[in-house]
Write a structure and sequence with these properties.
Layout lengths: L16 E4 L6 E6 L10 E9 L3 H12 L7 E2 L8 E9 L16 E9 L10 E12 L2 H14 L1 E2 L11 H9 L8 H25 L11 E4 L5 E3 L5 H9 L3 E7 L9 H13 L13 H7 L5 E4 L1 E2 L2 E9 L2 E9 L4 H9 L2
Parallel strand pairs: 2-5
Antiparallel strand pairs: 1-7, 2-7, 3-5, 3-6, 4-5, 7-15, 8-13, 9-10, 9-11, 11-12, 14-15
Helix pairs in contact: 3-4, 4-6
Length: 349
Amino acid sequence: MPEVETRLFPWSDAGLRARLRVELADFQVREKLPFPPSGSGSHCWLEIEKRGLNTEQVAQRLARLAGVAARDVGFAGLKDRWAVARQVFTVPLGADKTLPWASLNDENLQILSERRHDKKLRRGVLRGNHFHLVLRDVAGDRALWEERLRAVVQGGFPNYFGEQRFGHGNIDKAGRLLAGASRGIGRHERGLLWSAARSILFNAVLAERVRQDSWSQLLSGEVVQLDGSHSHFRVEEEELPALAARAAAWDLHPTGPLPGRAGILPSGAASQVEEGALAAWRGGVSFPDSGLHWAQCLAAQGLDAGRRPLRVRPQGLAWTWPDAVTLELDFFLPAGSFATVLVETLLGQ
């Protein structure tokens, strides 16, 4: 298995402990889309609250009632199964047709509202998510809890992919796929495994940046992302002082790789760290008879490379102590960032 760490945190384990998801309602998430429904069109826009169901299970229920294929049901992103989650689904129905959506209501699913929209809601069309978390059986120095919470407000936390990104055994399966064992793996599963492989490689690079205490700083040759956009550019040596000041103001961010072919690559010190972490990760296998590492294997599959910010800062992070052993957190994260990683950062593990 891995020769490098894939999860390191800025703070050490100092005895802070807490339990998350003791009850289903301890993890609540509400998505925020960048636009409202159009108000007319051939798609039903349904705001739904789900409990103990994953997003695809809800889509299947909607599809059965509407008599359409589950793939035609639109949603912006996947939400945790073990949570109380509010999200929007679109269902193609025809401009004048109505259905008894309320007939689907039960203890696990509630139709909150129905509107009309002119097109299918596409994956990735998501501004972010608002979270309400309840941590129970909280232990450790309360002053240290407060100190770390204030530090996250100011400096954010490492933008790791959370464990739920990888599923059970997907990293091992991804290694076998990249080593050439593709028999019996369909197109959909292949995409999930490639995604898991790219995510674990990003985490490995970020862990190395955390180890070097450079995860929130710009290195020479850094590829940066403008805040609130997907615009990237490489930092030239003479630009570093000015751009470092912009990074300190959270106007732009250092990034790590989502490996594939082409794409903008770092140079200088940033490249040395990135290439070293990528080359060290093999997950127990190499591409057959080639000695290639995983990132090179992904490029050989024809996947397009991408970049992801190494850090994220929660918006509006607020907390309360209902009692001495319970901590409640409210915050907003941009799409693709994980609330569970924020909690792990506070714990230092």
